[in-house]
Amino acid sequence: MRQNAVGSRVRTLAADAVPTRLALADAPSALVGARGAVDRAGRPLLLLKPGEPLRSALNAACDAAVTVNLAVTRRIGDEERPRALLRIQGWAAPVPAPERREAAVLIAERHPDEDLFLALEYPGEPAFPLLARVDVATVMYVAGRDHGTLDAEDYLAAEPDPIAGAAERMLAHVNESHRESLAHAMTHALRRPAPPAEVWLWELDRFGATVQVGPDQIRFPWPEPATCPRALEHALQTLLTP
Protein backbone atom coordinates (compact mmCIF):
# COMPACT_ATOMS: atom_id res chain seq x y z
CA MET A 1 0.00 0.00 0.00
CA ARG A 2 1.14 3.55 -0.61
CA GLN A 3 2.40 5.35 2.49
CA ASN A 4 -0.40 7.94 2.50
CA ALA A 5 -2.95 5.13 2.19
CA VAL A 6 -1.32 3.24 5.07
CA GLY A 7 -1.23 6.33 7.28
CA SER A 8 -4.83 7.21 6.54
CA ARG A 9 -6.02 3.66 7.16
CA VAL A 10 -4.17 3.39 10.48
CA ARG A 11 -5.44 6.82 11.61
CA THR A 12 -8.98 5.73 10.68
CA LEU A 13 -8.58 2.56 12.71
CA ALA A 14 -7.15 4.55 15.62
CA ALA A 15 -10.20 6.82 15.61
CA ASP A 16 -12.34 3.76 16.47
CA ALA A 17 -9.83 2.19 18.85
CA VAL A 18 -9.90 1.90 22.62
CA PRO A 19 -6.86 1.44 24.88
CA THR A 20 -6.79 -2.03 26.42
CA ARG A 21 -3.35 -2.48 28.02
CA LEU A 22 -0.33 -0.33 28.83
CA ALA A 23 3.17 -0.76 30.21
CA LEU A 24 5.99 1.50 31.31
CA ALA A 25 9.03 1.33 29.03
CA ASP A 26 11.27 0.16 31.87
CA ALA A 27 8.93 -2.77 32.58
CA PRO A 28 7.51 -3.76 29.15
CA SER A 29 6.25 -7.15 30.28
CA ALA A 30 4.26 -5.70 33.18
CA LEU A 31 1.12 -4.91 31.19
CA VAL A 32 -1.85 -3.52 33.11
CA GLY A 33 -5.37 -2.69 32.04
CA ALA A 34 -6.02 0.67 30.39
CA ARG A 35 -9.11 2.80 29.96
CA GLY A 36 -9.46 5.79 27.67
CA ALA A 37 -9.88 6.90 24.09
CA VAL A 38 -7.96 8.42 21.18
CA ASP A 39 -8.04 12.17 20.55
CA ARG A 40 -8.63 13.89 17.22
CA ALA A 41 -4.88 14.02 16.58
CA GLY A 42 -4.55 10.25 16.98
CA ARG A 43 -2.98 10.34 20.47
CA PRO A 44 -4.12 7.95 23.22
CA LEU A 45 -5.94 9.50 26.17
CA LEU A 46 -5.86 7.64 29.48
CA LEU A 47 -7.76 7.80 32.75
CA LEU A 48 -5.25 6.78 35.43
CA LYS A 49 -6.36 5.69 38.90
CA PRO A 50 -4.37 6.29 42.12
CA GLY A 51 -1.87 3.51 42.79
CA GLU A 52 -1.56 2.43 39.16
CA PRO A 53 2.04 2.23 37.89
CA LEU A 54 1.77 5.03 35.34
CA ARG A 55 -0.16 7.23 37.76
CA SER A 56 2.62 6.80 40.31
CA ALA A 57 5.32 7.43 37.69
CA LEU A 58 3.68 10.73 36.72
CA ASN A 59 3.60 11.77 40.37
CA ALA A 60 7.39 11.49 40.38
CA ALA A 61 8.14 12.94 36.92
CA CYS A 62 6.58 15.21 34.29
CA ASP A 63 6.39 12.39 31.72
CA ALA A 64 7.05 8.68 31.30
CA ALA A 65 7.90 6.44 28.35
CA VAL A 66 5.08 3.97 27.73
CA THR A 67 3.58 1.44 25.36
CA VAL A 68 -0.19 1.47 24.89
CA ASN A 69 -2.09 -1.34 23.18
CA LEU A 70 -5.32 -0.39 21.41
CA ALA A 71 -7.99 -2.65 19.97
CA VAL A 72 -10.50 -2.12 17.16
CA THR A 73 -13.42 -4.51 16.74
CA ARG A 74 -16.06 -5.18 14.12
CA ARG A 75 -19.54 -6.58 14.78
CA ILE A 76 -20.27 -9.39 12.32
CA GLY A 77 -23.77 -10.75 12.78
CA ASP A 78 -24.11 -11.29 16.53
CA GLU A 79 -20.37 -11.57 17.14
CA GLU A 80 -17.78 -8.91 18.02
CA ARG A 81 -14.54 -9.76 16.23
CA PRO A 82 -11.04 -8.23 16.42
CA ARG A 83 -10.52 -5.86 13.50
CA ALA A 84 -7.08 -4.42 14.22
CA LEU A 85 -4.48 -4.12 16.94
CA LEU A 86 -2.35 -1.01 17.38
CA ARG A 87 0.65 -0.59 19.65
CA ILE A 88 1.68 2.99 20.30
CA GLN A 89 4.99 3.84 21.92
CA GLY A 90 5.60 7.34 23.23
CA TRP A 91 5.64 9.57 26.27
CA ALA A 92 2.72 9.96 28.63
CA ALA A 93 2.14 13.26 30.42
CA PRO A 94 -0.81 14.95 32.12
CA VAL A 95 -3.29 16.51 29.71
CA PRO A 96 -2.76 20.30 29.62
CA ALA A 97 -5.36 22.26 31.59
CA PRO A 98 -7.15 23.87 28.60
CA GLU A 99 -7.68 20.43 27.03
CA ARG A 100 -8.76 18.40 30.07
CA ARG A 101 -12.51 18.80 29.63
CA GLU A 102 -12.43 17.76 25.96
CA ALA A 103 -10.25 14.77 26.88
CA ALA A 104 -12.73 13.74 29.59
CA VAL A 105 -15.63 13.96 27.13
CA LEU A 106 -13.81 11.79 24.57
CA ILE A 107 -12.99 9.18 27.22
CA ALA A 108 -16.56 9.22 28.53
CA GLU A 109 -17.84 8.33 25.04
CA ARG A 110 -15.73 5.16 25.06
CA HIS A 111 -15.41 4.39 28.76
CA PRO A 112 -17.92 6.13 31.05
CA ASP A 113 -16.45 6.44 34.54
CA GLU A 114 -17.38 8.66 37.47
CA ASP A 115 -13.66 9.13 38.21
CA LEU A 116 -13.54 11.46 35.20
CA PHE A 117 -15.30 14.07 37.35
CA LEU A 118 -12.67 13.68 40.07
CA ALA A 119 -9.87 13.99 37.51
CA LEU A 120 -11.36 17.31 36.39
CA GLU A 121 -12.09 18.58 39.90
CA TYR A 122 -8.71 17.66 41.44
CA PRO A 123 -6.18 17.84 38.58
CA GLY A 124 -2.69 16.77 39.51
CA GLU A 125 -3.59 15.75 43.07
CA PRO A 126 -1.72 12.46 43.81
CA ALA A 127 -4.67 10.94 45.70
CA PHE A 128 -7.07 11.43 42.77
CA PRO A 129 -7.40 10.12 39.19
CA LEU A 130 -5.40 11.79 36.44
CA LEU A 131 -6.03 12.42 32.74
CA ALA A 132 -2.94 11.65 30.66
CA ARG A 133 -2.09 11.86 26.97
CA VAL A 134 0.53 9.93 25.03
CA ASP A 135 2.69 11.84 22.56
CA VAL A 136 3.36 9.36 19.76
CA ALA A 137 6.83 8.10 18.80
CA THR A 138 5.97 4.97 16.78
CA VAL A 139 2.84 3.04 15.86
CA MET A 140 2.85 -0.69 15.11
CA TYR A 141 -0.30 -2.06 13.52
CA VAL A 142 -1.81 -5.41 12.56
CA ALA A 143 -4.98 -5.33 10.47
CA GLY A 144 -5.77 -8.65 8.85
CA ARG A 145 -2.76 -9.61 6.76
CA ASP A 146 -1.43 -6.06 6.78
CA HIS A 147 1.12 -5.11 9.39
CA GLY A 148 3.92 -2.62 9.80
CA THR A 149 5.25 0.37 11.68
CA LEU A 150 4.70 4.09 11.20
CA ASP A 151 6.88 6.76 12.74
CA ALA A 152 5.31 9.74 14.47
CA GLU A 153 5.73 12.05 11.48
CA ASP A 154 3.89 9.76 9.03
CA TYR A 155 1.20 8.81 11.53
CA LEU A 156 0.39 12.30 12.78
CA ALA A 157 0.57 13.86 9.30
CA ALA A 158 -2.04 11.42 7.97
CA GLU A 159 -5.74 12.21 8.21
CA PRO A 160 -8.49 9.74 9.08
CA ASP A 161 -10.57 8.82 6.05
CA PRO A 162 -12.89 11.83 5.54
CA ILE A 163 -15.69 9.62 4.24
CA ALA A 164 -15.35 6.98 6.96
CA GLY A 165 -18.85 7.67 8.29
CA ALA A 166 -20.45 7.10 4.91
CA ALA A 167 -18.26 4.03 4.38
CA GLU A 168 -19.45 2.46 7.63
CA ARG A 169 -23.08 2.99 6.66
CA MET A 170 -22.51 1.38 3.25
CA LEU A 171 -20.64 -1.52 4.86
CA ALA A 172 -23.50 -2.15 7.30
CA HIS A 173 -26.04 -2.02 4.47
CA VAL A 174 -24.13 -4.54 2.36
CA ASN A 175 -23.71 -6.93 5.28
CA GLU A 176 -27.38 -6.65 6.22
CA SER A 177 -28.97 -6.77 2.75
CA HIS A 178 -26.51 -7.74 -0.01
CA ARG A 179 -24.32 -10.58 1.25
CA GLU A 180 -25.63 -12.85 -1.51
CA SER A 181 -24.38 -10.38 -4.15
CA LEU A 182 -21.06 -10.09 -2.30
CA ALA A 183 -20.65 -13.88 -2.22
CA HIS A 184 -21.46 -14.08 -5.94
CA ALA A 185 -18.87 -11.39 -6.68
CA MET A 186 -16.23 -13.25 -4.63
CA THR A 187 -16.98 -16.47 -6.51
CA HIS A 188 -16.07 -14.69 -9.75
CA ALA A 189 -13.17 -12.66 -8.35
CA LEU A 190 -11.52 -15.68 -6.73
CA ARG A 191 -12.49 -18.11 -9.54
CA ARG A 192 -14.21 -20.52 -7.17
CA PRO A 193 -16.87 -22.98 -8.34
CA ALA A 194 -19.28 -22.09 -5.53
CA PRO A 195 -19.78 -19.17 -3.13
CA PRO A 196 -17.61 -19.36 -0.01
CA ALA A 197 -19.34 -20.53 3.17
CA GLU A 198 -19.01 -17.16 4.88
CA VAL A 199 -18.54 -13.78 3.18
CA TRP A 200 -18.69 -10.36 4.86
CA LEU A 201 -17.61 -6.89 3.87
CA TRP A 202 -14.96 -6.28 6.53
CA GLU A 203 -13.52 -2.85 5.73
CA LEU A 204 -14.48 -0.10 3.31
CA ASP A 205 -12.58 3.12 2.75
CA ARG A 206 -11.54 5.55 0.06
CA PHE A 207 -8.58 3.35 -0.93
CA GLY A 208 -10.35 0.00 -1.23
CA ALA A 209 -12.42 -2.74 0.38
CA THR A 210 -11.46 -5.72 2.52
CA VAL A 211 -13.70 -8.79 2.28
CA GLN A 212 -13.81 -11.61 4.81
CA VAL A 213 -13.96 -14.83 2.80
CA GLY A 214 -14.10 -17.78 5.15
CA PRO A 215 -10.98 -17.51 7.34
CA ASP A 216 -9.23 -15.14 4.92
CA GLN A 217 -9.33 -11.37 4.51
CA ILE A 218 -8.74 -10.16 0.96
CA ARG A 219 -8.02 -6.55 0.04
CA PHE A 220 -9.43 -5.05 -3.18
CA PRO A 221 -7.81 -1.64 -3.81
CA TRP A 222 -9.63 0.89 -5.99
CA PRO A 223 -7.88 2.06 -9.20
CA GLU A 224 -8.11 5.60 -7.78
CA PRO A 225 -9.00 6.78 -4.27
CA ALA A 226 -12.68 7.64 -3.84
CA THR A 227 -12.96 11.37 -3.19
CA CYS A 228 -16.57 11.47 -1.96
CA PRO A 229 -19.32 9.10 -0.78
CA ARG A 230 -20.81 8.95 -4.27
CA ALA A 231 -17.49 7.83 -5.77
CA LEU A 232 -17.11 5.25 -3.00
CA GLU A 233 -20.60 3.92 -3.69
CA HIS A 234 -19.72 3.58 -7.39
CA ALA A 235 -16.49 1.71 -6.57
CA LEU A 236 -18.35 -0.63 -4.23
CA GLN A 237 -21.04 -1.27 -6.85
CA THR A 238 -18.30 -2.20 -9.33
CA LEU A 239 -16.95 -4.73 -6.83
CA LEU A 240 -20.40 -6.22 -6.28
CA THR A 241 -21.20 -6.47 -10.01
CA PRO A 242 -18.53 -8.63 -11.68
Automatic annotation (TrEMBL):
It comes from the Bacteria. Coiled coil: none annotated. Residues 168-236 form the DUF2470 domain. PANTHER family: CELLULAR REPRESSOR OF E1A-STIMULATED GENES, ISOFORM A, CREG1 PROTEIN. This is DUF2470 domain-containing protein. It comes from Bailinhaonella thermotolerans. The lineage of its organism: Bacteria, Bacillati, Actinomycetota, Actinomycetes, Streptosporangiales.
